Amino acid sequence: MAQPPALWRALLPVVFLIAALSINVIGVFGDEALSGSNQFILLLSGAVAAAVGLLQGTSWKTIMEGIEHSIKATSGALVILLLIGSLAGTWMLSGIVPAMIYYGLDLLNPTIFLPATAIICALVSLATGSSWSTSATVGIALIGMGKAIGINEAFAAGSVISGAYFGDKLSPMSDTTNLAPAVAGTDLFTHIRYMLYTTLPAFIVALIIFTLMGLQQEATDSLERISVLQSELAQTFHLSPWLFLVPALVILLIVRKVPALPALLLGTLAGALFAFLFQGALLERIAGAPLDLAQGYRVIMNALTVSVNYPAQNPILQDLLTSGGMAGMLPTVWLILAAMVFGGVMEACGFLHTLSSALLRLARGTASLIATTAGTCLALNVTASDQYLAIVVPGRMYADAFRRRGLAPENLSRTLEDSGTVTSVLVPYNTCGAYQSTVLGVDTLAYLPYAFFNYLSPLFTLLYAILNYKIRRLARPAASGA
Predict the structure, then answer these.
(1) At residue 214, does pLDDT exceed 80?
(2) Which residue has the higher pLDDT, 263 or 162?
(3) Highest mean pLDDT: which of 111-115, 334-338, 447-451?
(4) Are 48 and 54 in contact (CB under 8 A)?
(5) 347/219 Cα distance (integer angstroms)
(6) Residue 368 has pLDDT above 80, yes or no
(7) Does the structure show a pLDDT above 90 at 44?
(8) 117-141 b/e with 16+ CB inside 10 Å = b?
(9) Torsion angle of alpha carbons 230, 232, 233, 235, nearest 10°?
(10) What count of Cα atoms within 13 Å lies in the side-chain half-sphere of residue 218?
(11) Fewest CB within a 10 Å sphere: which of 71, 135, 278, 304?
């Protein structure tokens, strides 16, 4: 193209996307929009962008090359997501995740209910990589217990969400934690290590606030629900501290800077081995036949790839033990592919460059660039109602700007997570906000003031940018240019 497209052309697909997603999420599907309709809206928006691009002179070949390049950029993350599904399956079957939950619940003391709730949810979310499943299982139990001892349910929901999103942000099994570095151009474990600078202080401050809220009520029989949950966990699984050797191995590999794929694969295989070593009786109950090598192999392969039905009577425990294996990750993979099609067309047609150039005129320095990125993430959570878009679109828009300013890509990936992932749950009609409100039974606007971690996280990002603290530079800044 002889010159960049006009701003109004670049805005057309974005306006269409926002309008279509708003109708889709708010008007029709609600939190079920992620089941497929949002994916089609993304593809349709990509078609609108392609039509505008063709009318302005972009060739079809260029558009297709943009889509291919966009999808290729996330190919590693997509493979990791499938592997994470397998890891989650074997860690559940082997009793690793149930052991984390069992021992984590022992931390609960009604006199420090809120900080303990945040810590428990953080542990579960770290283990599962999902803030949604954490809230839908342990979160529900903790909300119920809080009600029983007279704790404001909005306080409890804020604590659940703070812990769940802390674990989600730092878990290598989280889809958003994989997506952000893939879009920004860094690797998973570099991203996680760099996020610790803002995430840990934000969580510590949140814990201090929860502690200072001073819940002083004494323990009552409200502990019964937790006790019942622990009892059935112990009846279903053979629980032992030795099970923590597997996550310790994965943590060691991360510290040793082993690439994500082999680290997660080893964690998956170790989980499968521990299922044989520790859960023989459970494998036999699931197989419904005397355990032999073939039956054990069948159960473990199902845990790796699809799902396993665990013999649990407690409905909370039944939800908690749900794991979809590799197949459970396919909806997220589908969504990412559709989002990258839209992003690829926008980039190939020059629309992202036009939009980022217009926004970057507001960014005069490092602090304003990071603030503009964070603001864009929040704006997309409010307008597009989807946390994945709040990561993918700004990531593609600002990646070149960060490189030209000599900023390492982990600065961008951290900003995307600190501002895109955690603020999605604060928007009532965002898929995350709608989901959490429905599951926990607490209105989004009610728990919003008490989800301290979720708005402290972007504030710490902005503070670090203003102070120029922990802002990693490239060894050699990228050359200036388009």
Answers:
(1) no
(2) 162
(3) 447-451
(4) no
(5) 57
(6) yes
(7) yes
(8) bbbbbbbbbbbbbbbbbbbbbbbbb
(9) 120
(10) 1
(11) 71
Q: Are 232 and 312 in contact (CB under 8 A)?
A: yes
Using left for φ > 0, alpha for ψ between -120 and 50, and beta otherwise, residue 470 falls in left
The CA distance from 149 to 152, in Å, is 9
Q: How far apart are CA 94 and CA 209, in angstroms?
A: 36
Q: Are 458 and 378 in contact (CB under 8 A)?
A: yes
| Backbone angles phi and psi of 174, in degrees to 5 | -80, 140
Q: Around Cβ 41, how many Cβ atoms within 10 Å? A: 24
* Rg, the chain, Cα only: 23
Record the tokens describing residue 436, joined without a space.
Answer: 């959490």
Half-sphere exposure of 377 (CA within 13 A, CB side): 32
Residues sharing a CB contact under 8 Å with residue 156, sequence separation 6 or more, in sequence order = 113, 114, 117, 142, 143, 146, 147, 442
> Residues 6 or more apart from 258 whose CB is under 8 A from it?
none
Digit-coded pLDDT (tens) for 406-442 = 999 999 999 999 999 999 999 876 778 877 887 788 8
- Stretch 4-17: mean pLDDT: 87
Q: Single out the residue of 433, 423, 464, 416 nearest to residue 178, CA to CA.
A: 416
Phi and psi at 255, nearest 5°, equal -60, -35
Q: Are 333 and 81 in contact (CB under 8 A)?
A: yes
In sequence order, the 6+-apart residues with CB closer than 8 A to the CB of 315 are: none
**pLDDT number for residue 160:** 96
Helix axes 260-278, 188-212, angle to 10 degrees: 70
Token reading at 475: 């060894």
3-state DSSP assignment of residue 169: helix
Q: Are 95 and 238 in contact (CB under 8 A)?
A: yes
Backbone angles phi, psi at 413, to 5 degrees: -60, -40
Q: What is the pLDDT of residue 149?
A: 62
Contact, 417 vs 183, CB < 8 A?
no
Per the structure block, which two tokens stand in for 398?
A: 């600002």
C-alpha closest to that of 422 among 174, 115, 254: 174
Proportion of the chain in helix, strand, coil states, percent, rounded to 5: 80, 0, 20
| DSSP-derived 3-state class of residue 452 | helix
Dmax (CA) of the chain = 74
* Partner residues linked to 407 by β-bridges: 473
Residue of 425, 375, 429, 393 lying closest to 17 (CA atoms):
393
Q: Which residues contact 349 (CB under 8 A, 6 or more apart)?
A: 5, 49, 50, 52, 53, 56, 58, 62, 63, 66
